[in-house]
């Protein structure tokens, strides 16, 4: 409708002006019957109506252009917001994939640790891996995704970090062979929590990415 007004609205005003000019140029005989008084009343009535239309057309055209400009501005802002969201989503997916891959390596490493592995070595390896997992989880993109896009279903980023902190004190257990098994069990529990978080946030990010791409495609068409 707005495009039609933009394209043809001027024609209405032109028709009204043309009728008025023709009336002035050709006189009454071209437009009136023998009854001049009746002709005069009819033309006054008709011109009053068309005059109101002619006066309204510029206003309608102006408002139409304003609405079109506002819609363009809104679409532009929406497109920028969508692009920013998509960038955060893609970074989140990459960060979750990196974290998951590293967790698989750590789990595999502890699966090969012998029960009689020296306790000091087990302690050092445990602390190193906990620091590494914590560093991966503290990627700012996870928190940004939760704050700006969506909170995962089961875990927030705070929960696996709390689990790591809760088990950090186990590194003091280093004087018996059972400590290696304890470390293995603890690593398995921590990695499971981190993997659950990664799965949740990947699922949420993938949903949001598909939705954003669908919106972008619809806007382009």
Question: What brief labels describe this structure?
Answer:
single chain, 221 residues, mainly alpha, 6 helices, 82% helix, 0% strand
Arithmetic mean of pLDDT:
75
Helix content: over 70%
Order of helices and strands: HHHHHH
Beta-strand percent range: under 5%
Largest sheet properties: none
Q: How widely separated are the two ends? A: 18 Å
- What is the number of beta strands? 0
Nearest-angstrom radius of gyration? 37 Å
The quaternary structure here is single chain
The gross shape turns out to be rod-shaped
Count of runs of 4 or more consecutive helical residues? 6
Contiguous runs where pLDDT drops below 50 for at least 5 residues: 76-80, 173-178
Structural class, please?
mainly alpha
Kindly describe this structure.
The chain is mainly alpha-helical. It has helices at 2-26, 36-111, 119-137, 140-148, 158-167, 178-220. The longest helix is centred in the first third of the chain and has 76 residues, at 36-111. It is rod-shaped.
Give the SSE layout.
Layout: H1 2-26, H2 36-111, H3 119-137, H4 140-148, H5 158-167, H6 178-220
Helix pairs in contact: 1-2, 2-3, 2-4, 2-6, 3-6, 5-6
Write a brief caption for the model:
With 221 residues, this protein is mainly α. Helix content is 82%, strand content 0%.
